[in-house]
Amino acid sequence: MVALTQALLNGLVLGLIYVAIAVGLTIVFGTLRLVNFAHGAFYAIGAYIGLVVAQNWGLGPALLAAPIGVALFAVLLDRVLLRPFYGKDVTSQILVTFGIALIVEETLRLIFGATTQQYPALAGLATSVSLGPFVYPAYRLLFAAGVIVMLVLVWLFMEKTDYGLIVRAGVRDRTMVQLLGGNIRQASTIVFALGAAIAGLVGAAASPIYSIAPGTGFAFLVPSFVVVVVGGLGSFWGAVLGGLLIGELQSLTTLAFAPAANVIIYLCMALVLLLRPQGLLGESEVIRQ
Amino acid sequence: MRVALLTLIGLALFPFFFHAIDGYAGLATQIVIVSIASIGFNFLLGYTGLLSYGHAMFYGSGGYVAALMLIRVMPQHPNLWLAVIGGTLAATALALLVGALAVRLYGIYFALLTLAFAQMIFFVVEQSQDWTNGDDGLQNFPTALLPVGPYTIDLGTPLPALALGPFGNLSDIKLWYVFAAVALLGVILGMRALTRSQFGEVLTAIRENEERSSLIGFNAAAYRLAAFAISGALTGLSGALRALYDGTVAVDAVGIDRSGSFVIYTIVGGVQTLFGPVIGTGLIMYLEAVLSAQISYWRLIEGVIFVAVIIFLPAGIVGTLTRKAAERARQRRALLAESLRARTGGPT
Question: Which of A20, A94, B104, B118 is deepest in the core (most CB within 10 A)?
Fold first, then answer.
């Protein structure tokens, strides 16, 4: 029972990381119709910025610097490299963003080395709280609460602001939004930076829990794509549902039969793709892209 | 005929070119073998428009099955033909299975489903310690021999000694290279015939307009499945040859980086071209062998080359060159026609 509760909590933490990365992927796809294989790179850059800042100034500044740094990088990427690819076919987008992911990963390897980095032992990180029959790291609970708050803010942005309105309308009918005078370009840049900032922030916040290595970004990106596909490409709630589902599935399978933990999520994605290709909460129009 | 002859000459001179630069003995053979997989990958991407992100599953299954056949099935009489055929058939069967599910999907969904299957196979291979020896992979399997008529050939045998000055010695080359080069030649000629056949034309038609092709009466899914199986078979053949040549096969053969490498080789060389995948494979593998020995950030350079090609040469190296050549030929013809008209006083 204790083991099961712990596994469920671990699954929640892991799932929330997936949700945060997947939300970025999905809103960027919604506005820009861009399939971004470089999204994992934002997570990794955030993790390394967070690490360097945390080593010198502590965790608080790290959580501030990571999203800002990553958002700036994303705007640069958007303006310099990606712009010509927005209108193009999905294949070209996958290829160029895959190339960018490769370059970022290798640059991180060049700067920080190939080995897994250890997070500095900051005060408070080791604190545990008692949850009835067992203790659980306080930072993980705080992390989960923080990610949930962040997701609520993103949801409010998407639902209550004009930018969010343009983004959601853009998912339905891009041309119509432009005809009606919605500045989809500007909204796109903001959404791209926002998605990147979320990934960067989560990268920095999750690194005391999970290790950091140059390949971490891609390692989180692939399950996050699974999440997006399971939930439905372009759907905010789909990303939330898919992320929690995949996180728990992975965590519970680790408990029950560890060798299958990595296979099960791909099996889950294959089943969803074959039975309901638009994803659990997705709209069927996007599947032929 | 001309293509066959030129390819033959190119393949015959290729390993000597290596020696003249710095002498990477086994690299020429490895490039020739991996090129077969890139050709298979290019057939799928170029003629159906489907980007597979999991071709390592075919490459790896070809390699593992070929090795397992030597270890488990015929350790006493290791037969290279049987091992290669077994590996290729296993990859083809896998391609038919995955393809039956995947060819209904497009774009990102197809890429992710192939990636998902490849990841499943990767973890199964990694976990099946008893069969695959996990992370360490299979080594020291019996050397497969090649029975040809009354002879039994060991492909590890070097060619007869013959000094060639700056090009080294003929005996630097093993029979393996000859065998692999003949296989590649066959694959290139087969691919040329296939893409010019009615089958290739129907595939192109489906890629350009699936709805119209279906209405004419072509079963688009069946054609795509056939293309996927051919692509998987060639990749499996390549994986089987590589495992037997290297004498080892490990989990990286089924890994995500391997899948990505076929993408990189093909795009750099030129998708939808006959020789692009071969040139791309040769260039990147050569640079990798030369540069990775000297600098640690080779893969960064590889990434930069890849992105630069996508942005500046979207048709790839070979695609851009052939397009330029076609353009020049067109201009020459136009000039000639104009001068003829001027001379005969015809309508301008």
Answer: A20
